Amino acid sequence: MVSLRALAPSLTRVTVAGAIGGVLHVGHGDCDLIDAKAVEFSRTVLNQMDIDGAVICCEGPKDNAPAFERREKVGTGYGPALDFVVDPVDGTTAASKGRKDSISTIACAPRGCFQVLPDDGYYFKVATDYHSNGKLSLDMSIEEIVRTIAAAKNVSLEKFTVILLDRDRHNDILKVLRMLGVKIILIPDGDIIGAIVAATPNSGFDLLIGAGAGPEATIAAAAVKCLGGVMLVRVWNPMLDVARVERLKQAGVDVDKTYREDELAKGNELVFVASGVTKGELLDGVRLNRDGATVSSISMRMPSGTIEKTETTIRFKNHPVYKQFINEL
Q1: What digits encode the pLDDT tens for the residues 55-101?
Q2: pLDDT at 222 exceeding the cut of 90
Q3: What pTM was computed for the model?
Q4: How far does CA 264 lie from the centroid of its chain?
Q5: Hey, which of 42, 84, 176, 325 has its CA 20 to 30 A from 112?
Q6: Residue 94: inside a domain
Q7: Mean confidence (pLDDT) of the chain
Q8: DSSP secondary-structure letter at 119?
Q9: Residue 18 has pLDDT above 70, yes or no
Q10: 88 and 137: one domain?
């Protein structure tokens, strides 16, 4: 059995490919084209791997965006049985507008270890670092959550930093945060990055909070678990949409349950990888040149807890993957 540790470099090649595919149309205003190229490039690399793989979920289908098919088979079919949750570009809208903080990302685990919340409406998410292990509940108010984390980290509210998506649905949360006097960082897209920086000790960010999509919750949970942090996820405002609640129940979701990072990403073997598409808080963006590209990536693994940042330089002309796309590059 090949260890996930041994596969981590190959998974980095997958997100590098997604980032290069995605960056080709940054700033052009076409989200679907960015997603399509990121999926095409990353699929090509995945299918070269000696694995019996399945993409059990990919962000995008609910918006009719290009994506991997649900439970799409990937790899040669020979090798370890693995599941993937993929977001070829998290922050597609940001990338389409030439903004920062878009990444290509993938989470990997042995078959059956991921629980993915359906891409059907929003889920309330909280992420922070190890200081608050066992101290948080989504039954707490927003103020209680902030004060509990601040006390656990011994950080004054004036120096406490919260990151959340800039969405109208968060207006009530913003009112509480502003009343508390904490620092607030509003991001246009991509709450996976928000969860990672909030779960990273000494990152300058203390808490991710707010409502986002389901597949990203599982991808982020894999990263947060590798970091030793805390992530809590629950269905957002379930009583506002009775039909949605029924759909979620049919899909096996407990609409009253708080899912923890170790329930969304089970077991003790996990790999999370991300590569920067545009420059951001976590990673530099892709740097294209005449002959190729340079891509920054981060890889996190369990059980070791190893975190690696790498910079990959690709030359397109004779590359086994990119030479077939040379006219697009």
Answers
A1: 998 876 666 678 899 899 999 999 999 999 999 999 999 999 999 99
A2: yes
A3: 0.94
A4: 13
A5: 42
A6: yes
A7: 93
A8: S
A9: yes
A10: no
Phi/psi at 13 (nearest 5 deg)?
A: -65, -30
What percent of the chain shows pLDDT beyond 90? 84
Instruction: Tally the C-alpha atoms within 13 A of residue 2's C-alpha that lie toward its C-beta.
Output: 16
Q: Which tokens sit at 279?
A: 């420059």
Q: Residue 150 has which token pair?
A: 């601040």
- How many angstroms separate the CA atoms of 41 and 328, rounded? 11
Q: Are residues 106 and 137 in the same domain?
A: no
- Provide the token pair at 164: 């959340």
- pLDDT band at residue 326 using 50, 70 and 90 as cut-offs: confident
| Cα 270 to Cα 131, 283, 305, distances in angstroms | 22, 21, 10
Euclidean distance between CA atoms 243 and 2, whole angstroms:
43
CA dist., res. 285 & res. 20, Å (int): 10
Same domain, 9 and 138: no
The tokens for 34 are: 């960015």
Q: Which domain holds residue 23?
A: 4-111+268-325
Q: Alpha-carbon distance 293 to 316, whole Å? A: 8
